[in-house]
Amino acid sequence: MRNILSNDTNFATGCKPNFKMGPIMREIGVGIVGGGYMGKAHAVAMAAVGAVFDTALRPRLEMVSAGSPDSAERYRAAYGFNRAASDWQELVADAKVEAIVIASPQSTHRAIAEAAFALGKPVLCEKPMGASLEDSRAMVEAAEKSGAANMVGFNYIRTPASQFARKLIAEGEIGEITWFRGEHTEDFLADPETSASWRTKGRANGTMGDLAPHMINAALALVGPVKTLIADIETVHATRPGGTVSNDDQGQLMCRFENGAMGSMHFSRIATGRKMGYAYEITGTKGAIRFDQEDQNALWLYRMDEPEAVRGFRKILAGPAHPDFLPFCQGPGHGTGYQDQITIEARDFLRAIETGTPVWPTFRDGLEVNEIVAAAFASSRSRSWQTLGTSA
């Protein structure tokens, strides 16, 4: 099993970032493309990360761009950026913008990333990395050709509890993994009377493009590469008030990992009652782990080596003894939240820039996720098993 122990691990992909740090350079100008929900989250993270983690690089909120000059100026004033850009090209080309966060629609990711990498600028891109597999492959090629630091925004796997789960697995605490079950289920479109919107148009905005990548990323981090899979994907509510739905509501897949473990995953945006159903169960030869993001500061651990009379799943509350908890809070059980995951992510991105060492997940790791999504669609169309590396 590949080493997935910590964020300090060198997840080298053959590229070495060329962003050079001088001994007196401690500030770095950050530009964020898109100021909406994720743009705000990244802006808050970049403003806080230096104080939380005492990073060697201290982000300066240099510029934000959005769909119109008015909205960009509104985001600038609200989030504390120095300047607003009328479009993303202006932001990418600006000399004071030294690192770029892409938080705009998926259809724009490739062009922005390619322009940034052409200038040797590091890029943190929100998932899904590209609007298509072709886009994702081109983005990896541009990233590795430039040698600049690159990272994909999979934030949920960075909770202290999930980082601790990765540590337990890597250290062999639950033995060899034999089975994995994961889900990312929410109910924001469970009501068929919810109006059609941008979320119901385009493959990248469907459940397989929006929710599935997070749990697939978790499966890769916790268990390892997927070898084969078979999937079923469907649109349950084909029409909604205001229009026809052109993407998927839910999907499921069975898979076999390269290490021999069996797995299954389920993804849905119509899972009535589920608000943040990012959850997994992992069975090993010595124990088992359970996690649910709706209770993100708890991990459930079962160990076979305990006496029969007390053997059972034990609830472990996240605390200062677990990865990346202490910088936020000194009290066990007090908990971390969604925004803290983005701040941890910002720390990792800055570390990649500062050290010149790739930090997982790189663009190549993001491509691996997108290849699994593409294989799932191919399987659903053909009603057949797919071997990774052969899907289109």
UniProtKB/TrEMBL annotation:
This is Predicted dehydrogenase. Keywords: Oxidoreductase. Pfam families: GFO_IDH_MocA, GFO_IDH_MocA_C3. InterPro entries: Gfo/Idh/MocA-like_OxRdtase_N, Gfo/Idh/MocA_oxidrdct_glycsds, GFO_IDH_MocA-like_dom, NAD(P)-bd_dom_sf. Residues 164-290 form the GFO/IDH/MocA-like oxidoreductase domain. The keyword Disulfide bond does not apply. The keyword Cytoplasm does not apply.
